[in-house]
Write a structure and sequence with these properties.
- The protein is about 50% helix and about 15% strand.
- The protein is α/β, with parallel strands linked by helices and about 375 residues long.
- It has an 8-stranded mixed beta sheet, sandwiched between helices.
- Helix 5 (about 145-165) crosses helix 12, helix 8 (about 230-245) crosses helix 14 and helix 11 runs antiparallel to helix 12.
- The longest helix has 24 residues, at about 300-320.
Length: about 375
Amino acid sequence: MFIFWWFFAKRSYKLAPITHQKDFAVVVTAYQQTDLIPEVVKSLLGTDYENYHIYIVADNCDKSENLNFNHPNVSVLYPEQVIASNTGSHFYAINHFIRKHEALMIIDSDNIVDKNILIEINNYFNEGFEAVQGVRAPKNLDTVIARLDAARDIYYHFFDGKVLFQLGSSATLAGSGMAFTVDLYKKCLENTNIKGAGFDKVLQYLILHHQKRIAYCETAIVYDQKTSHSEQLVNQRSRWINTWFRYFKFGFKLISQGIQNLNLNQLLFGVILLRPPLFLLLLLSGLFFLIQIYLFSILGTSIWIMGFLSFIISFILALKVSHTDKRIYKALYSIPVFIYYQIISLINAKNANQRSVATKHQVVKKLEL
């Protein structure tokens, strides 16, 4: 994919000057934990944009002084019943809009946004896009696990965001730091019941199903709290692995639609959806490599060695192109430990949504593997 991108990709978009500031609803979802929300709201209120309103959906949260905001651009919503669902919280906000907004931006309760984020996303909306994914940069690199988590994000942002979009397909959704027209969001999910994690997987499939593209905006930056310790990582990855097994079938559907519609966007995106999580891809590759050695297949063994080398080169290239923090490079030696925790996550994936609903973040002062 990198080779095709290097030779054939449209590297940049010439965006026209802003002609209209869309009216944004910024939805911040919280489940049980609210202590990081004041920091989120402070960053949102500091954006260089005028036409927006912030909706905080405090699901299963006690009313506290943390959420007392005396600002006309902020509304705090406490659902009467526990929702325990991302899309449920989003539609709770939509049903309580104070006015008819044109666009919806989704932000996690642990995010901090760059002051230009709404301007940058608005530029793509003015170009006709109805869905935009920004970049989730690391807010913390306090542990080795956080640094490896950030390295993974950099890889995916580069290949599943920048490269895929510039090849004419769509950026994959990351769960936050993303925006949609309200009409498109409602069209895709209003009548869809999603239980557990993975709403972004369903949403991106439905957007592609409607033959829309998801733009990748690398100048729309959200600073995301990375997982810092092992228990947090296992719970989070268990949910993510669970969603891949539940929704990778969408890849086959999009490939079929892409062929029928002669739609490169759908075809490329469908191929990406079939790819398993990186750690699982590496484990399976290692297994097939050992099988080739056992069969004394020189050709097969050589092909797998070339495959491993290609992956390593592409991973390093993604880090280099993204101007990665030196601390992340130093953490790469711990990748085997990181993979070990994800194997534990795989074992727990079946009951992931019973183990935890949302990632609980905390500050960790010492390095932990």
